[in-house]
Design a protein that fits this description.
Structural class: mainly alpha
Strand order of the largest sheet: 1-2
Shape: elongated
Radius of gyration: 32 Å
Largest sheet: 2 strands, antiparallel
Number of strands: 2
Number of domains: 2
Order of helices and strands: HHHHHHHHHHHHHHEE
Length: 328
């Protein structure tokens, strides 16, 4: 139970961990889909290979785009790539890092699907049974009235009547399955070796300090977008609540006719209004909100916090229709 809690805490720690968890979940889903998928070869010479390759290629493509869709790095990368320069310059290395991370995670589920299909061998048998030379095997059912091509196309359909008293289809299926599993294990070995060589050789050719900077700013963009969304939610909540309270302000007299503790209610309302006003920062109109969001998109603030840390706080106040001072 403690290990499970640690795993959950790891996956909830940051967006990168969440993306890893989602990709692992997609890989497990791909395995479950394949095991629950009832593959039935058409056993026709003109359709076997087409159907088998479709089953081997189309689901990985769907899983790849699904991995791209659910990966948070996709949105962060596209926002950074297409945004106007404004006050902040773009860093192509950050976009490249986010793209690489997105592709690597999105390829996990498709590769799992392909490896599982190859190691299982059923799809490979359906696709390439026609490519096997029947002379290599004994027991070819030649009294069925079918030509060799149609007989070889029916090899994946072991329940066919022409193979009832013959072990020919078993021998051919075993032969093709061995090739399929050999290809699957070879691809898996190649991927493992490629990943190991990449981890060993990459530090020798890349500047580690540059890599740390790129990773830092990619995490910064993700965190900045999160905090901006959370701040927008809080601001929108206070803005909406203030609008609703103002709309029902005329009904306050009816509520205050017999309150149980009028002083506590007034004190609570004053505290809430003051707190909401502080979070609204003087943004009290739709035009101001639109202008603020437009300014954030077209001219994001430069990455320099010394101005906010050392400059004196400047306040500009104005009065609303009720004469209350507002911070702008």
């Amino acid at each position: 139970m403690e290990r499970l809690k640690l795993i959950l805490q790891y996956f909830q720690s940051n967006s990168e961990s969440i993306s890893n968890g989602i990709c692992i979940l997609l890989a497990l889903v791909s395995v479950k889909l394949y095991t629950s998928f009832d593959f039935n070869c058409p056993c026709l010479p003109q359709y076997n290979k087409l159907y088998s390759l479709g089953v081997m290629v189309v689901p990985p493509i769907i899983l790849f785009f699904l991995g791209v869709l659910v990966n948070r790095h996709t949105g962060v990368m596209m926002d950074e790539w297409i945004r106007p320069v404004g006050k902040r310059s773009k860093n192509p290395a950050v976009v490249k890092y986010l793209f690489s991370a997105m592709v690597q995670r999105a390829l996990l589920a498709p590769m799992v699907w392909i490896l599982v299909t190859l190691l299982d061998g059923k799809i490979f048998i359906c696709a390439f049974s026609l490519s096997v030379d029947p002379v290599l095997f004994s027991g070819l059912p030649n009294n069925t009235g079918l030509d060799v091509i149609n007989i070889m196309a029916k090899v994946p359909c072991k329940e066919d009547v022409i193979f009832r008293n013959s072990s020919f289809h078993k021998a051919v299926s075993r032969y093709v399955r061995c090739y399929s599993q050999a290809v699957g294990w070879s691809i898996l070995l190649f991927l493992i070796m490629l990943g190991a060589l990449g981890r060993l050789i990459k530090p020798c050719f890349d500047d580690h300090a540059t890599f740390l900077q790129t990773r830092y700013w990619s995490n910064y963009l993700d965190m900045e977008q999160k905090l901006f969304d959370e701040t927008c939610v809080l601001h929108a909540r206070d803005f909406a609540r203030t609008c609703v309270v103002q709309f029902f302000e005329d009904m306050r007299e009816d509520v205050e006719m017999c309150p149980p503790h009028p002083q506590s209610i007034e004190h609570f309302e004053e505290e809430w209004e003051e707190e909401a006003r502080e979070r609204l920062h003087g943004i009290t109109k739709q035009e101001q909100v639109d202008n603020l969001l437009n300014k954030w998109y077209f001219g994001k603030p430069e990455l320099d916090v010394t101005k906010a840390a050392y400059r004196p706080r400047m306040c500009v106040t104005c009065k609303n229709e009720k004469g209350n001072l507002l911070l702008v």
